[in-house]
Amino acid sequence: MRAKLHYLAIMTIMPIYGIQVCPFIESLSAIEVFVTFDVILVLIYFARGPLRARLVDRAPLAAQTLRVFTLELVLFASAALILMFYNTEVHHFPLVSGMKVLVGVTAMGFFASADLALEREREVAHRVERERLSLPLSGNFFPLSSKLALFAAGCVALLVGVFMLLVNKDLDWLVEVGSAIPLAEGRLSILKEFGFVLLVAMPETLNIIWSFSRNLNMFLMRENGVLACVTSGHYDMAVPVSSNDEFGVMAQHTNEMVRRIRERTEELQRTRDVTIMTLASLAETRDNETGAHILRTQRYVRALAIYLRDHPRRADVMDDETIDLLYKSAPLHDIGKVGIPDAILLKPGKLTEEEFTVMKDHPKIGAAALRVAEDELGGNSFLNYAREISLSHHEKWDGSGYPQGLKGEDIPLSGRLMAVADVYDALISKRVYKPAFSHQKAMAILREGRASHFDPVLIDALDAVEMAFCEIARAFRDEGQIDEDPALGHLAHSSR
C-alpha cells in the first residue's frame, strides 16, 4: 500500500514539476506529459514485484532493508532515464531537459525509497520477534549517526538541486519575457513554483522523520520492556536482535547480561535453598523429629497458601511470589531449637514446667539468629518470612500462645499457616514420647482448635485441601507411617 501511494504521488507530482522546471516539457500538452510520465512509472511499478521477490525477499533478513532502498532508488532513477531517452529520441529535447527530470524523479524516489526501506525494517523486526529469530551481527554495520547524516545531506543536496533548476529556468524566463509581464505578476509566478516544491518536499521529509521515529521507538520500547522485566525480577525475556546496527548490538549485549543475571540468580537460589535445607536438617538432627517433617510441613504451608490465593479475605496478600517465599522459608521454623539443651530437647517424657519454659525460648532464639542475617543483608523478604514463621508459629488465635502472646490478626499470616501445618504433622507423626495419631483424629483436634488455637479461615482452608495434605503425608511419609494409619493411604488414593 505504501508503495502504491508513493508511485501515485510521483505520477501526479512529477509531470507538474517537469512543466515547472523545463520549458521544453512545458511546450508539450498537459495530457501528453502526464501520459508519458505515468505509462513509464506504471511499467516500472509492475517490474518491481518480480525484482523484489528475487533480489530482496530471497536475501538474508539482515540485508533486506538496504536492498529495498537500493532497488527502489534504482527503479525510480531508471524511470527518469527512460523518460529522458524518450524525450530525446521522440521530441529531440536537449540533455539538460532530461537532467532536470532525472534530478526531480531521483529526489522523489529518494524519499519514497527511504520510507519503503524503513517499512521493510519494521517488517523484519516483527518477523524476528514473531518467529524468535536472531539476526547475525557484523562489526562492519553502518552506524545510525551516519545514516542520519547521509539522509540529511541527501535531502539538502536534492532540494538545493531542484531549487537551482527552478532559479535557472526562471532567470531564462525573465530574460525572455523582459518587460512584457509586470514585475508583481512575475514575482508571484516564481513564488508559486517555489511554494509548489516546498509543498511537496515538506510532507515527504516529515513522513521520513515520522517513519524513522516509529522504528526508533519500536527498538527502544523492546529494550526498555526487557529491562523493566529484569528490574522486576523476571529473567526469561530477550530483546529481539532484528537490526545490524547499534540497536542490534545493544540487544545482543542486553540478552547476554540477562542470561548471566539469570544464571547467577538461579545459582544463588540453589545455594540458598540448599543452605536452608542444611540448616533445617541440622536442627532436625538435634530434635526427636525426622527429616521428612520439614519436607511435609513446607508443602502443607504451600497447599494452604495456594488455596488462600483465591480466598476473598486473603487474595490481596497471597500471590505466587509470596507463596514461593513461604514455601522456601518454612523449613526454618524450628531453627531456634539448636539453642535448646539436649537434656530438654531430647527428653523422651513430658517436660517439667521449668523445662517447658526453656523450650518456649526456641522461637526467640531462631528469630534472633535470622534477624542478624537479615540486618547483615540489609533487608530480605525471604529472611523476613523465615523470621516471622520462627517467632510466631507457636502463637494461638486466642492469645494463649508463646512467646509474645499475640492474638488474632496480630499474628503474622505466615506464622498462622505454619501453626496449622506444624501441629497437623506433629499429630500424625510418631515421636518417642507419643504414638502417631490417625488422620481423622488429627483433623478432629485441629477443628476443635478453630478460633481458639488456629485462625478459623485456615481451618476452613484445611478442610478444603484435606486430600492434598493426605497426599503430601503419604508421599513424604516416615517409615511405617501408612501401616499405622491406613486412612492416609486411602484418602490420598481417593484424591488422585
Task: Provide a descriptive summary of the structure in words.
The chain is mainly α and 496 residues long. It has two domains: 230 residues, no CATH class; 210 residues, Orthogonal Bundle (Hypothetical protein af1432), CATH 1.10.3210.10. Helices cover 74% and strands 0% of the residues. It is rod-shaped, with a radius of gyration of 40 Å. It starts with a helix and ends with a helix.
Overall pLDDT confidence: 84
Estimate the strand proportion.
under 5%
Alpha-beta classification = mainly alpha
Major sheet: size, sense and barrel closure?
Answer: none
Report the C-alpha radius of gyration, rounded. 40 Å
Total number of strands? 0
Helices and strands, in order, run as HHHHHHHHHHHHHHHHHHHH
State the helicity in percent bands: over 70%
What is the overall shape?
rod-shaped
Calculate the terminal CA-CA distance, rounded to whole Å: 58 Å
The number of helical elements comes to 20
Low-pLDDT runs of 5+ residues are: 489-496
Number of separate structural domains: 2
